[in-house]
Automatic annotation (TrEMBL):
GO terms for molecular function: hydrolase activity. It comes from Dioszegia hungarica. The keyword Chaperone does not apply. It comes from the Eukaryota. This is Isochorismatase hydrolase. PANTHER family: HYDROLASE (PTHR14119), ISOCHORISMATASE DOMAIN-CONTAINING PROTEIN 2 (PTHR14119:SF3). Belongs to the isochorismatase family. The lineage of its organism: Eukaryota, Fungi, Dikarya, Basidiomycota, Agaricomycotina.
Length: 257
């Protein structure tokens, strides 16, 4: 079966050669979004300026599954950025959690993102879901149990599951950071639109390297040596540059990020 977003998320398939229907076409655009969570200037300032504690920050990996590999724009570059995040999470002792949309049909989380290398005390599982948002019971329970006050979101699709997760978390008064070099969609044109919606809703849109340095904070920390080794390895392998060029080439040139 074709790996279209409509097959992937359970929408009716079109016939061979037909153009898939728009997910938004039957409804006014406003109905697609959750009820708005209005961000005050004080809340926005808190997200932008308050320090991040790795132990109270949750890395959320959204639906990076085998069936999406061929259909998703820049899948391998997205995965390399996510793998950098899981490696950094191990160094910084930051909890990690993944979800999987209908895994019986769409497969498990791909090994490319490095979940298997995350220590068991930090890995909070890969949980199946049917709703588009990641805010299912296991995630909500982990946020409460771990006293989480910030979430970093990576994965797919930027305009569906990533967006809805971001809006739900913002409505729950968490600070949300979306990594522009580590989220994607089937159609790349959806990505900047989704990022702008999330930014306007109150999320901080940033990059994988920027956020890990923000989490690290101090070069005198004993964790800095393995941390900077990871950063150098990612740069030497070309992973950092490739992900930035794939997802932010145009935005970087135009000064939009």
């Amino acid at each position: 079966m074709p790996h279209s977003p409509h097959f992937v998320f359970g929408y009716p398939q079109t016939g061979a050669g037909d153009s898939p229907p728009s997910l938004l076409a039957p409804l006014p655009l406003a109905l697609f979004f959750h009820p708005p969570h209005y961000i005050t200037q004080q809340e926005m300032a808190s997200s932008l300026t308050k320090a991040l504690d790795p132990k109270r920050t949750l890395l959320l990996i959204c639906d990076v599954q085998t069936k999406f590999r061929e259909a998703t724009y820049g899948f391998s570059d997205m995965c390399s950025a996510i793998r950098k995040m899981t490696k950094a999470a191990t160094i910084l002792e930051m909890p990690v959690m993944a979800t999987e949309q209908n895994p019986k049909a769409l497969g498990e989380t791909v090994p490319d993102v490095g979940l298997a290398e995350v220590p068991s005390e930090l890995l909070l599982g890969a949980h199946p879901k049917t709703k588009f948002s990641m805010c299912i019971s296991p995630v909500q329970e982990a946020i409460k149990d771990k006293n989480i006050d910030a979430a970093i979101i990576v994965g797919i699709e930027s305009h569906i599951c990533v967006l809805q997760t971001t809006l739900d978390l913002l409505a729950s008064d968490l600070r949300v950071f979306v990594l522009a070099d580590a989220v994607s969609s089937v159609h790349k044109q959806e990505i900047p639109v989704a990022l702008e919606v999330m930014r306007q809703a109150g999320a901080v849109v940033t990059t994988s390297e920027s956020i890990v340095f923000r989490l690290m904070r101090d070069a005198s920390d004993p964790k800095f040596k393995p941390f900077v080794k990871l950063i150098k390895e990612e740069k030497d392998a070309g992973n950092t540059k490739r992900a930035l060029e794939t997802f932010l080439g145009g935005a970087a040139e135009q000064g939009k990020l």
